[in-house]
Amino acid sequence: MAIKTIGQVLKEKRTQLGLGLSEAEELTQIQKLYIVALETDDYKALPGEFYIKAYLKQYAEKLDLNAERIIQAYDEGKGITVEDEEDLLESYHFVKPSERVDPEEEEGPKTWRNYIPIISLSAVALLILAGVVTAVLVNKPATPNLLTSDYSYAQSTTSKAVSKASSTSKQTPETSSSSSTSAQPTVAMTGSGSSVTATISQLTDPVTVTISAAAGSNIWVGVTNSNLSAGGQTLSDGANSLTTTLTTGATNAVITAGTARGLTITVNGQALNLSALTSTGTATITLQINR
User: Can you give the pTM of this predicted structure?
Assistant: First the structure.
């Protein structure tokens, strides 16, 4: 136990908190010169009795001290009894390197039991390595003898296979040519007036539709399920023909024309018979595609 002045208690607490005078001034909103006066118990440097107690109370509260005890000590003109902190330098004993004891020496000499974990891990690692080597040797493919007569025989067999494949490939174009010649699209027209339907069989993608207008005509046309824009296109003497491709896999498409007079339509080169379109107004040609 020790008796210290109010100023000593305040200064020690500020030091413990790691605050400099400028930081204490910012924390307490008390001018630095008044803080120094409080910590040196120089109360004459303060403006008056009221400010002394006010600053002591404010400073003690900001430093987390018992403000009432501080004010009481000031009123009684006494010091404050505090407990001394343990002097670490007195209880701490520095050990020289030469005096230090190796932990292993304290435990005593090692026996074979101390090495059991290391031996066990080493044994497991060796077993794993042996297993890997054995698996590689067992599954290693046999090395072919390239000097045997089997090589020439294989080469001969390969040559025959290549010759046979070459001969087959020469025959393929003729076969596909004959099959493509036999599978020609067929067109069946139904309907009359302002609407007809063209049923086209044996048609394969891509399906190309060509629409032409006679000279001097001015016809607007549109085609659904195609790459033609949704706004369609007007055929006139400046551009009296258009070609569009139907969407891959489409089974139908609708051609709309301002009039069928002077109009010619072909699908993959097959001309459509539009003679049944007798209306002078808007004409609709529906394509039904059978693959």
Answer: 0.39
